[in-house]
Amino acid sequence: MKVVFLSVLLEMVCAAQEVEAQPSVAELSGQWRTVYIVSINLEKLKSNGPFRVYLKKPLSDDELGTVDFYLYARCKGNWEYKHIMGVKQDDGIFAVDYEGENAFEVVHVSKTILVAHNINVDKHGQQTVLIGSFVKVNIEEEGLQKFKQLRQEKGIEEENVVNFIETDD
Amino acid sequence: MKVVFLSVLLEMVCAAQEVEAQPSVAELSGQWRTVYIVSINLEKLKSNGPFRVYLKKPLSDDELGTVDFYLYARCKGNWEYKHIMGVKQDDGIFAVDYEGENAFEVVHVSKTILVAHNINVDKHGQQTVLIGSFVKVNIEEEGLQKFKQLRQEKGIEEENVVNFIETDD
């Protein structure tokens, strides 16, 4: 009896170890850039496709369970800066209203890379699976110090610094 | 006499240690993004200014001593993708023909950050000092593997991957 119990316990422990810890949504916040998106349905990814999306900065709120995506997407041939909101469901997947309904899941997130899985159902009821990878813009402290030092050496005030990552238009 | 000679030698060694090794131009190649640019002359950096430049990828050639800059800049209100070439001079500074003449110097370059100094002399003879910092888009192998694994699990062919960093338009 004891042996059976221990064996079951051991299986449970092993199974738990195999499941990757759920990524912290808080890590999502920051400046991210789209690297790759893949789908069987390339119509959604072509130049004017709705998922030709250049991510800028998602902002996540762990308490509210929301993610605000800020991104560029094409709309009738022109680039548009869009704000799209995702709401976390009980299963950890975000419900996102964009080009139909989406179930957006963070598969892997670290300080530098984000891998996400999305199922879109468009207004015609067509289902499309998309997988995206995104890279975080990390600015190394040592380099920032060199920049600051050089600016001071040249006698230029801090207020004259233009931030291109935040104002990226 | 010996003491004086040793003291001079010691001073020379110390001075040599203070000088930072010249950055390798080969490290310049890759996908970079503009983070900050600073100048006393903000006219050059305002929304339609010639140095409101979003760097994409410089390609350097150590043997030829050239750097090819690919970047976006505004031209009469529209974004233009530009190719600008720099030629290395004997002093290690690049001569670049863009909005007048430029002396472009790499001050610091690592695997993640680039700090550069530029002196522009425009067609009216006005001199402007600019300092820029740029961040490299590094894609972590672990994250790439997760993306690949997920793509394979979903049965999507590699040829369906859209590279957003390379086709960033």
Percent of residues in beta strands of chain A: 35-45%
CATH superfamily of chain A: Calycin beta-barrel core domain
Query: Helical residue percent of chain A?
Result: 10-25%
Q: Compute the CA-based radius of gyration of chain A.
A: 21 Å
Q: Which structural class matches the secondary elements of chain A?
A: alpha+beta
Q: Could you tell me the mean pLDDT of chain A?
A: 82
- Tell me about the biggest sheet of chain A? 8 strands, antiparallel
**Quaternary status:** homodimer
- CATH class of chain A equals Mainly Beta
Protein name (chains A, B): Lipocalin/cytosolic fatty-acid binding domain-containing protein
InterPro entries (chains A, B): Calycin, Lipocalin, Lipocln_cytosolic_FA-bd_dom, OBP-like
Signal peptide (chains A, B): 1-21
Subcellular location (chains A, B): Secreted
Write up this protein.
2 copies of one chain form a homodimer. By secondary structure, the first copy, chain A, is α+β, with helices and mostly antiparallel strands. Chain A has one domain (23-163): Lipocalin (Beta Barrel). In chain A, 18% of the residues lie in helices and 43% in strands. Chain A has 2 helices and 9 strands. Chain A has an 8-stranded antiparallel β-sheet, with no helix packed on it. The longest helix of chain A has 17 residues, at 2-18. Residues 1-20 of chain A have low confidence and may be disordered. The interface between A and B is large, with 45 and 45 residues. Strand 9 of chain A pairs antiparallel with strand 1 (32-39) of chain B, so a sheet runs across the interface.
